[in-house]
Amino acid sequence: MIKHTLAISISALALGMAMPASSFAQASMDHGKMGMSPSADMTDGEVKKVDQEAGKVTIKHGDIKHLDMPGMTMVFTAKDKALLAAVKAGDKVKFMLVSDGGKMVLTDIRPAR
């Protein structure tokens, strides 16, 4: 009987310790850094060149924080060539990139405000 009570007490104690920890982990998640808010990860840049046919755009950009990339000028491939129809060299833009197997892919681009 004592062993049974002791086992139940230890189980209850372990469960009680695990519950607050898991609740804390869920409460402290930053959903903005998990991609839940796309506008938070948009990067400022200036379009230098557009190759509509190839689906590529050259952008001089600031730090791309969600990819831990410093500012520079790079050529990006658009996920969809149609994204590039509304931009031209000289445009100030906000854009979104994702890393797809190490290749930076442009998934969104819009005029900066």
Structure in words:
The relative contact order is 0.16. The chain folds into 2 domains: 2-33; 37-111, Copper binding periplasmic protein CusF (OB fold (Dihydrolipoamide Acetyltransferase, E2P)), CATH 2.40.50. The protein is of the alpha+beta class and 113 residues long. Strands 1-2-3-5-4 form a 5-stranded mixed β-barrel. Helices cover 23% and strands 35% of the residues. β1 and β2 form a beta hairpin.
**CA-based gyration radius:** 24 Å
Q: If helices are DSSP runs of H or I spanning 4 or more residues, what is the number of helices?
A: 1
Widest beta sheet: strand line-up: 1-2-3-5-4
Q: Give the distance, in angstroms, between the N- and C-terminal Cα atoms.
A: 72 Å
- Class computed from helices, strands and strand pairing: alpha+beta
Shape descriptor: globular
Mean pLDDT: 78
CATH fold type of the largest domain: OB fold (Dihydrolipoamide Acetyltransferase, E2P)
Number of strands: 5
Going by CATH, the architecture of the largest domain would be Beta Barrel
Order of helices and strands: HEEEEE
Domains, number: 2
Strand content: 35-45%
Within CATH, the superfamily of the largest domain carries the name: Copper binding periplasmic protein CusF
Largest sheet: 5 strands, mixed, barrel
**Helical amount among residues, as a percent range?**
10-25%
Walk me through the topology.
Blueprint lengths: L1 H26 L15 E9 L4 E6 L10 E7 L13 E9 L2 E9 L2
Parallel strand pairs: 3-5
Antiparallel strand pairs: 1-2, 1-4, 2-3, 4-5
